[in-house]
Every structure is written in C-alpha cells, then in structure tokens.
C-alpha cells in the first residue's frame, strides 16, 4: 500500500531538496539544520535526572530547559542532589544546573517552548506553581523561575501536550475543552504576550479516535502548522490523525493536503497511534512517528514516515520505515538525518512481528534514518530502551535527548544527554 522507497522521478526531486537542506541555508522551522550526522559519543557535561521521565526540552538562548515528571537532579560529576519539581534548567555550555530556576509545578510538564525576553512556556497536567494558579499552562522567567504575570492563559477540561511558538503567536495542543472562558477543543492559538485566545484561529479537530479528541504533536514551517493526534477531522474535513493548517491566512484554514495513511486501525489498545512529528529545516517535508503494534508493511503502525508538505490534494508517504512492533515517540529532522527515538529494537523491519524480520537492523532505543532513502543509517549509539525517548531538540551544537533511562551511547547519562556535532 505504501512506498518503501521513492520512484526514480520522486527520488531525483527529493535528492535535490535534501542536498539543499544538508549543504546550507537558514532553518525555516523549529528544527535546526545540520550538515553532518551527530557524533555517537555523548558529551560528558549534561546533568542527570535521577527519577521519572523527561518529556520536553527547550533552548532559551544558552539555557536548556527540561520538563517532565521528576523530582531530583544533579550536576555531572557531583554527588549533591537538588530538588526540582518537574522542571529545571541548565547552562548548555557548562552543563551546570541553574540555581535560581526552580519553579514548583505540581504536575507533569508535557511540552515546552522558548519565549521572548528570557522566558519559557510550559504546558502539562499541573494546576499551580509555588502556590500560584497555573492551570495546564504557564510562562516562566529563566532568571528566577517566577511566572510572567501578564501571561494569563489557562487551559480547562484536559491537559496540554504540545506547544509551538512562532513570533507573536503561541499554538497550544492537547485534550482540553476551553482556554480561559473561550471554547477551544484540543487546539488553540494564543497571543504569546498575554495568552489571549486569537479569534482568527478556530480550526477544530473532531471525530475522536478513542474517548476524546486530542492533539498529540505539532510542528510549524513555511506558514503551515502540522498537527497529529486522536481525531479524524479538522473543521469537518476528513483528516485521519494528521493534517496541515494554513496559518499565514486570516482566518487560518485547513490546507488542501490530506492522507489516508493513518485511517486504518492498529491494535485495539491504540485507537490513535500517531506520536511525534517534525519538519525538515527547509519546510519541504515532515516525518511522523507512531505506536500501535506490528501491523505489517501495509500499515503505518510502529513506524516512521516521510510526507511531502508542498503537494496538494491526497498523498501517500514518500517512504516508511517500520520497527516491527515497537513504539517511536520522538523525531528530529535535521537535513542530514531523521533521528527517531522510542523503545525500538530494530529498523528496516516491515515483516517483523515483535521479531527481527528479513533485512532488519538492530537499533536499540535511538536511531537515524536517511532522509531520502528512508533506510537506517549506520549511526547506532544505542540507549537503554525503557519507555522510550520522549524528547529531541536539535540545536547548532548537536542533538539533545530526553527519556526515562540512564544509559545513552553506552555511558551513564540519566534521562538527559546530548550528542555533539563533530
């Protein structure tokens, strides 16, 4: 049903696009462009998260902000344990934990986005920070961890799972029903300064796959917002689990782009199985990763798939890479590689059924895919599998990785680590 490799004409076009992405040009999306694959040897300076799981990473200037569900952290090479309630920050260059950034969020952080003026947005399942009300969404100062008082957005009726900031706008995804007193089902655009709901953006996911409508992940490039999650429609138009929204238009509208690739069902336990997504730096394509159980080569369960963003009408994936039965949660597209993370054992495994089928390659916990061929690259640092990688963040110096385990690249790196560019 789906192409595992490109036909010759499409291959030539994709090679041309990827050559541009790999060799130069400014990044147009949230992904930073890399000309090379990152090293398989993690840096030694990153701090350690001593319990729980890391769900999200943001970079604010030279400060890395880490969010998740945890309570203790410590600097690399130090025995001193620091209490941090689901969020902390450290200096990217030195790895040292910032002593003055210690917000007390009373629930998990699922999403982070860098803000202007030395701030960060956090979204999740929390209700307050340090006794101050912060229902599912807050903007924090990096300098002291205090909430920015002018930002007053609150999500109700569910949690926040994804954040994307673009200029003066903040896109919020989750399974909430309202932002403030304004009804917004699972998706909203806010004023990034005040948190006020933008009336020019009212695209609504519908037809839930599962108990309720949910936006799982978002990414933005070239005036288009990609969203995936537990829905079958956007503004009543068929968009099973995945769609693009033209956000440069006013009002924003669902793009003339659709795929039925995620219409089929996987295992009953996974009515919605799309997970992370990310645009290429030039915005020409994006990659979606999934859960769902081994579904065979004709389904996109437990897979990574590339989609061209600039086509119109109905489309199929350009390529698909199957794990053979293991979930992928996170993806980062840098131009040089498509990094995928979860609790996978293999890639190149369309015929596996929780087993290594013909041609499968071992890639435990973290791996890289060639952006054009869709085949696994040789890069194979390994990672203790656990639940899986939940967060990637590509930056000019390398690739940050957040998960729930303590060994990355065959070294001790508890739940947060970084592969540098060589």
TrEMBL record:
Key word Signal present: yes
Signal peptide: 1-28
Top-level taxon of origin: Bacteria
SUPFAM superfamilies assigned to the protein according to its UniProt record, in alphabetical order: Quinoprotein alcohol dehydrogenase-like (SSF50998)
Keyword Secreted among record annotations: no
Alphabetical keyword list: Signal
Name of the featured protein: Delta-60 repeat domain-containing protein
Species for this entry: Planomonospora corallina
